[in-house]
Amino acid sequence: MLDISSHAAVITGATGNLGTAVVRAYLTRGTHVAAAVRDAAKGDALRATLKDVAGDEIDPRLLLIDADPADAAAMDALVERVLRAWGRIDILNNLAGLFKGGPALDTGLMRELWDTNVLTAVTAAAACLRPMRARGYGRIVSVSAIGALKGGRNNAAYAMSKGALIRWTESLAAEVKVEGITVNAVMPTTIDHPVNRAQMPKADPKLWPSPEEVANVILFLSSRESSGVNGAAIPITART
Predict the structure, then answer these.
(1) Global confidence as pTM
(2) Which residues have CB under 8 Å from 68's CB, separation 6+?
(3) Which residue, 79, 186, 179, 62, is CA-closest to 125?
């Protein structure tokens, strides 16, 4: 069993289908979670979904903080609030991301997916690394995709952004490896949730990993027990 009960985690993209599973997995293990939320309504829905594990007014284990992960000032303010509340940041999970298809020459789409899939991770990490470095400990895990490994028709912007996230993960891992901090990524294939089922009605979702399966890998990489893994991009390609 992973012991992350004393840890504090910052999560971007927490209101998505994967994000909800990841936050629940943390909360059920006693981790305190601060979620950067851009849409207040989605934040309220997340809190309602997780009310059974989110703590209470005396010990609020889930903080929903209005912050755009791509906004450096907003993420700096989020970090300060987390430090005031819990005194530490042990974990950053970069779950914010977007899939859109389009032609390889669509520069607008290229910029949109870069800002959403890469800039959010870099900005959130820049804010969270300061307290991690001060304590000499940290775990950063980002969500890339199997699609990062090969381009295809109408997939250039997505493949480029997710591929760049892996190269960034490797580079940052090399820079902080002597500071007690690891940086890794996961590369899931299509995740089984209602949105993907609706968009791909002819596909067989029994072959897709569940959000909980992906969450379990993320939690392992976010634990002390994963200290030997750094700069890795781990495929998650099937339900078992």
Answers:
(1) 0.95
(2) 36, 38, 74, 75
(3) 79
